[in-house]
Please model this.
Amino acid sequence: MLRAFLGITIAFFLIACGQIKTLNKVSIALNPWPGNVLLYLADKKEFFSQVGINVEIIRVSTLADAQRAYLAGEVDGFASTLVEAVQVGVVGGEPSKAVLITDYSNGGDVIIGGAQINSMADLKGKTVGCEVSSLGTYILARALAVHQMTLADVNIVNIEQEAVSEALDSRKIVAMVTYPPYSIALQNTGYYRQLFTTKEIPEDIIDILSISEKVLQQQPLFVDKMKQAWRLAFDYLQQHPQEVIAMMAAQEGLTVAEYTQALDGLNLLSIEQQRQLFQQPQKLQQMGVDVCQSLAKIGAIESNCEHADSLFYVEP
Model:
């Protein structure tokens, strides 16, 4: 009888432990953007578990997919640009906070044109593709503004990244807003011309990791531990660049040279660099508001942007 009682007790204990582990797991949607390399690395090298957090990486294809997964409640967090985070707050997604500022796009995001398009000016009156529901429209608007045009000067159609090559080949569009690894494959064909890169708008496009406020309330140590994991991954990349690049290139179906090229289009931020930014809350608040107001101005969202000044996590 005692043995049976102990057996039942142990069984319930194990079940309870399993439930606790499930409750504590934090799922994060990541697309193949090279700025997410350190999050993938932290997962592969078990840095998350090493610092004491249970993180599950959910691979998705695009920025829009990461945003959709979060909005559908399929994940607890997502990596994106500030644009997607602003949009989530508008459409009623679970409130979230940016806990990491992972990188600046410094040429990684590009506009690629067909052979008949020689410059941004040639896009006037033409049809351009982008992921309308995410970063694409914002970058297109900024690129056109740099070249003294507006979204009214082009026709816009929504094209998912996986369909870019077909849309360009069929002349459904003459240009596309894209990013690695998709842009690398397109450019390496030799058929398309680079018309614009985010080098022309330095530090305008930042990438972040957003986590549900509910998770942050349940796990008050999560942000600090996530930063520890990021630091471990950052240091590992510095110490073993060839290993990491080869591993990530294989994951994304790119050559080592192609993945290196993709990494060259961004500035990964150390925890020290991120800390400097987080110590400038007014600057971050203004960035959120600026992005939101730009999206509202181009008709990508309808919002008074009141939520946009509180997108970033503030240390309690």
About this structure: The first helix runs from residue 2 to 24. The mean pLDDT is 90. Residues 71 and 93 are 5 Å apart (CA to CA).
